[in-house]
Amino acid sequence: MSAEEIEDIFLDLTQKFGFQRDSMRNMYDFLMQLLDSRASRMTPNQALLTVHADYIGGQHANYRKWYFAAQLNLDDAVGQSNNPGLQRLKSVKGGVKTGGAKSLDSALNRWRSAMNNMSHYDRIRQLALYLLCWGEAGNVRFVPECLCFIFKCADDYYRSPECQNRVEPVREGLYLENIIKPLYRFMRDQGYEVVDGKFVRREKDHAQIIGYDDINQLFWYPEGIARIVLSDNTRLVDAAPAQRFMKLMKVDCNRVFFKTYFEKRSI
C-alpha cells in the first residue's frame, strides 16, 4: 500500500470516531516510521505482517492474550441472537464445557485463519485504529486491557453497517470527550478532591483507592466485563458487539469498578 492510501485510512477513521487531527498526524507518522524501520531489514509485506503480529494478531501480542483470557472468542462465536453476554456467563459459571465451534482449539484456529487471510488494508486499518485509540488515551494507557476493550468495541463498530453508512463526519474530539474523559475523571477523583477550587490529594491509604490495577482487573475476565452497566441500568454485554462502542459514553464508572488489590503501603 502507498503512503497516500495509508493516510486515507487514518483520515477515514478520524472522521468516523472523532479523533483529533493533530493526534492522527502524530500516529500516522509513528506508524510510517515503524514500517520504514522494519522494511529496512525485510520486505515491506513482512514488515506489515510483523508489526500487526506484535500489536494485535501474533502469539505474543497483548491484545490476543487479552481477547482469549476475557473469552471474547465466545462472545463473537455465539452472536447477538443468542444473547452473547448471558451465554458467556452461563458457560463460565455453570462449568459447561464448550465444544465444537466454541472450543478453545477451534477458536485459536479461527483466529490464525483470520490473521493469515487478512488483507493488507485490514491490517493497516486495525493498526491505525489501535494507535489512534492509544494516542489520545492519556492515563488510560496505564490500564492496557481496558484499552484493548475500547479498541475491540471500536473495531466491531467500524465493521458495522451503521458506521459504514455514516456520511457526515463526527465532531473532532468526540473520542476524547466521550470515551476517555469519563475514565480519566473517575481515576482522578479516586486520588484527588477539590478544596477551595484546587485539586488536593485525598488522605486515603492505597488500599482504599480504586487504582489502575483494580480498573484493569475488571477487563481480564468475562464476569468483570459483564459488570459494565449503563446509566439506564442495562448491561453493555447485552448489546450486540457492533453497538457497544457508541454506548461506552453511557457507562456508569462509579457502579462498575471496585477494589481488588488491598495491599497497604508503609512509604
From TrEMBL:
GO molecular function: 1,3-beta-D-glucan synthase activity
GO terms (BP aspect): (1->3)-beta-D-glucan biosynthetic process; fungal-type cell wall polysaccharide biosynthetic process
Transmembrane segments: none
A family per Pfam: FKS1_dom1
UniProt xrefs under InterPro entries: FKS1-like_dom1 (IPR026899)
Domain 1,3-beta-glucan synthase component FKS1-like residue range list: 121-233
Domain of life assignment: Eukaryota
Record-level GO cellular component terms: plasma membrane
PANTHER family reported in the protein's UniProt record: 1,3-BETA-GLUCAN SYNTHASE COMPONENT FKS1-RELATED (PTHR12741:SF48), LYST-INTERACTING PROTEIN LIP5 DOPAMINE RESPONSIVE PROTEIN DRG-1 (PTHR12741)
Stated name of the protein: Beta-1,3-glucan synthase
Species lineage: Eukaryota, Fungi, Dikarya, Basidiomycota, Agaricomycotina
